[in-house]
Amino acid sequence: MHTDLVAALDIGGTKIAGALVDGRGRILVRAQRPTPAREDGETVMRAVAAVLGELTASPLWEGVSAVGIGSAGPVDASAGTVSPVNVPGWRDYPLVARVREAAGGLPVELIGDGVAITAAEHWQGAARGHDNALCMVVSTGVGGGLVLDGTLHAGPTGNAGHIGHISVDLDGDPCPCGSRGCVERIASGPNIARRALEDGWRPGPDGDTSAVAVAAAARAGDPVAVASFERAARALAAGIAATATLVEIDIAVIGGGVGKAGEILLAPLRKALTDYATLSFVRRLAVAPAQMGTDAGLVGAAAAVLARRPDAAAAGV
Amino acid sequence: MHTDLVAALDIGGTKIAGALVDGRGRILVRAQRPTPAREDGETVMRAVAAVLGELTASPLWEGVSAVGIGSAGPVDASAGTVSPVNVPGWRDYPLVARVREAAGGLPVELIGDGVAITAAEHWQGAARGHDNALCMVVSTGVGGGLVLDGTLHAGPTGNAGHIGHISVDLDGDPCPCGSRGCVERIASGPNIARRALEDGWRPGPDGDTSAVAVAAAARAGDPVAVASFERAARALAAGIAATATLVEIDIAVIGGGVGKAGEILLAPLRKALTDYATLSFVRRLAVAPAQMGTDAGLVGAAAAVLARRPDAAAAGV
């Protein structure tokens, strides 16, 4: 008997994952569909409903008390809507109402995907035991979330911690978001690769021009590849230092595909932090790699909804 | 009979102000001494004790339940110590213990001065009724504080909201704090004046080269003076947008001497915000001038300590 059983949905531009998750963060049932991201909104919703349908068909479903959703953003938790950049068929789409309906009227909690991953790292990963933390995903984009005073800080609309779109270079290159010099515009995987190519790096015989290939070149000592990661590290450090200076975090957890580059990114990042995190109360800031794997979004969506229940302490979120 | 009476101290590099403040934010008794900022730490403490002595001599003192301190930073609320940049005799100075002793053992609450001003604006000023706010002081330095989820967010050490020292120009000019391109390095009064002079602005017959004089020149149409305020406005906008993107504030309140420049600063600031605050959940961000006067530090220190008491709702902090 699982007394704290919840359903979780992790909705991204590539796949829609679902699970039943117990109060200890264990995934008991899974379902998944590709996201028909280029289709109309109702077609995308049918894929969500199919995932939910597999979950509701489980004999465990009768023990489920709520549904947590972590979605690609922007989301609007106060309105219950989502407008994921990579799913154009959903603009102010009433996802919470539609999921509630498909889940037999259960309570539904919506947060952004960066916030969900943060909930997972705080519950069971690298931010465990930290009352004030920034967790980041450095990948095709740069996302994040915050734990403040021991609690997930989702913000009124569920988007807080959006570190990829703070400007650390106010005169810098235009960002697709409309601003300039955003952390993501400098530190995301595609931008690391673009900068390396612009500065003369050339891929190997396999033609791979991704940030993974740039990271391999950097490990082999290619100075242009090293410099591109160092530049990304400086932007991340400025953003992390800004966050610590504003809200007093004591750890920054770095995950995502670019985060997996390891010390090629983390060593210059720690060094750059000494340049930007200078005030007494931010100097002890730690940087750690993420510990949660590909289930972070599901576990985090479950954590967020468990935290809203009377037995919230169990989730430690 | 004042049931919610507290004592408040506002400790800066120029003066040490004290007051007895009631649960409605009214100042009933005042005391003040110049800060002997260049003297040794015990001499500075004697000035604090003299202010407290005047307060404890009041017949109202017997109703006082706690002491709130807003101090120039950095402070360390967790250790109970202060290290104000402008008071070199105090480094990790145990101010909380010393004030508790001088106040007959009453509970003492320490916060940074930017946090104190934020508490005041949230209680009775421009941020009243806003659950998520950034309040700033733009003056010789740039400071600030945050209200999140309806509550003052001081951070574990009492320094949160330190927007003056987030970098918005990662390759920018070195800042005395050790970082580069900080908001304060671009937007403080002395930096507005310095930039105007470097770019060819010249003072009038009175020789006044302060930011107040630059503001007057800007109002008279001097293009170099206008440009210096516009540059400050861009840095403030990038910092405010970063804060909104990280923690979802819905209002930024601007006070301090430079803030008093009015539309010369606020008009380009609102315009620049449309450039940097681009994501859906930060686009509705309002900018408003501060409403609290020179008593903001005292009222805010009182608010912070009132908020820790069982009747916290009364202070609305």
TrEMBL record, chains A, B:
InterPro entries: ATPase_NBD (IPR043129), ROK (IPR000600), ROK_cs (IPR049874). It comes from the Bacteria. Pfam families: ROK. Signal peptide: none annotated. Belongs to the ROK (NagC/XylR) family. PANTHER family: N-ACETYLMANNOSAMINE KINASE, ROK (REPRESSOR, ORF, KINASE) FAMILY. This is ROK family protein. It comes from Streptomyces composti.
